[in-house]
Amino acid sequence: MISAASYPALDCRVLVLNKHYMALRVISAKRALSLLCRDLAEVIFCDDGSYANYDFQTWQHLSQMKHHFKAHKQDWISTVNFDLAVPRIIRLLFYDRLPRQTVKFNRRNLFARDGNHCQYCGKKFPTSELSLDHVVPRRLGGQSTWENIVCACTQCNVKKGGRTPQQAHMKLIQKPVKPKRNPVIHIHLNHERYQSWRQFLDHAYWSVELT
Fold it and tell me: In the structure, how many helices (H) and strands (E) does the chain have?
């Protein structure tokens, strides 16, 4: 039985590699543990620039030692019988497909690309206070593409209305472009707990899909 205090740890993010150590996607710790328990994956543990592979039973044993020495560096799941460190990276043992190399065109990635900043006034807002604006309005032939949609706060969106920035006497703070890699991954990399992902992120080759 898992304690109530463990549930936030189950929401931690885990980087998934294929059998050739190529990054595929990011999943929840709950999903990762399910794969480990069914022997479909193994833990990749990084320490001081090197890494080691552990099956689920060995990871349980290692967790007991880590809990005594480095508990503050891990997220923990507590059960009736043992405490388990949440892995940061897992490797699928029977999956060798290549990772996706395109960035999904969706609201989450658009907000992440623009860093939750209104692209007209430059201020940062919570996602709930931002909208997505067509730079060239659809009524003027503007398309729903990476290059024509930006984040805009309510005030700027109302001010711009159904006009182009030039018509509204407004200026974009940066030109919207399609990201070469998934912008959300950089949000996670800014957190200390996900620093171990870096050595598996070859940006020239792949982009991570978040699910």
Answer: 6, 10
CB of 205 closer than 8 Å to CB of 21: no
Residue located via tokens 């001081």: 48
Count CB atoms within 10 A of the CB of residue 131.
15
Q: Give domain limits for the chain.
A: 4-100+183-210, 107-160
In this structure, the chain runs to a length of 211
Q: What is the pTM of this model?
A: 0.56
Looking only at the bridges linking them, the beta strands covering 13-17 and 89-92 are parallel
Hey, is 32 helix, strand or coil?
Answer: helix
107-160 under CATH 1.10.600.10, yes or no = no
CB atoms within 10 A of CB 26: 20
**Cα Rg of the chain (Å, integer):** 21
Is residue 186 within a helix (H) or strand (E), and if so which, with residue range? helix 184-189
Longest dimension (CA), the chain: 66
pLDDT tens, residue by residue, 50-103 = 889 999 999 998 888 776 556 677 888 887 778 889 999 999 999 877 666 677
For residue 178, give both structure tokens: 């399609």
